[in-house]
Amino acid sequence: GDGIIVRIGPRHDVAGIAFVRNGGPSTTVKRPVLRDLDALPLPAWDLIDLAPYRAIWKESQGHFSLNMATTRGCPFKCNWCAKPIYGNRYNSRSPEHVVRELELLKELGAPDHIWFADDIFGLKPGWVQRFNEVLRERNITVRYTIQSRVDLLLEGDTIDALVASGLQEVWVGAESGSQRIHDAMDKGTRVEQIAQATRALRSKGVRVCFFLQFGYLDETEAEVEQTIRMVEELMPDIVTMENVPTVTK
Question: Has this prediction a pTM greater than 0.90?
């Protein structure tokens, strides 16, 4: 027909793949991790008809939201996390690169909201502050949701910079009201930081949402009660739970 023919080179020239060769499995050299994420072109949002997405979002939620990612990976070592793609590496797009994509989305679909799908948003020192500056320089307004850690949110003026740039909602890995469980998870956070971050965010009008786990190895009923009391005290806007039936007395 009139289709385009794409000529593919030898398979052994492509790094990071597995294939059948001479009747058996064969692999090529490991593909290196891309560190300069700004070298990637912006996603081809123009190839997507955003109208039906806008319609269903407006009908069901009253606003139009799209997802973006600004980083790859997570440097922390919570021992229950699969980390199936990027492991403990953490590489980030620059604020300028991210804002260019936001400008593109504004032209093509004008979403009302962005869910930044990073495991950890804005971890690099100064990133969220520069993000806020670039948004102001380019006259871009955005409302957004992120995932973060309570200890990172409490650093310096991080919350103020996030709020100034359009933060509306934060999901944090609260996990448990027991410090022993946090330590067993290799979480690296303190229970009191959950309350501190929640109150600081809420004082700025930001919605706070908790990821929780029940039934971590050797968790006791008393520790489950600690988590329940934490939720009752802090009253997060949304809670999602992962339950593992291993609770012991």
Answer: no
